[in-house]
Structure to design on (80 residues):
């Protein structure tokens, strides 16, 4: 009887872990897809990503020594 109880507990634990992993995936995957689509849309419209927003390239200042974007002023209104 003890063996059956142990197997039942293990089964419940495995089912619970599968549920947690599935929930995590169901929340995370759509967010990743949305972010990826937004970034590709921005780049396809000749924009630049700065602070997780899409800007017109010409409105951004770049540090000449590091090559990193330091400031952008005009958001790109890209419809994808």
């Amino acid at each position: 009887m003890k063996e059956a109880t142990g197997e039942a507990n293990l089964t419940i634990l495995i089912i619970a872990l599968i549920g947690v992993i599935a929930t995590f995936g169901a929340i995370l995957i759509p967010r990743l897809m949305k972010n990826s689509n937004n970034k590709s849309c921005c780049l396809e419209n000749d924009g630049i990503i700065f602070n997780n927003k899409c800007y017109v390239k010409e409105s951004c200042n770049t540090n000449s020594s590091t090559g990193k974007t330091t400031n952008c002023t005009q958001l790109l209104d890209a419809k994808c």
Summary: The chain has a mean pLDDT of 87.
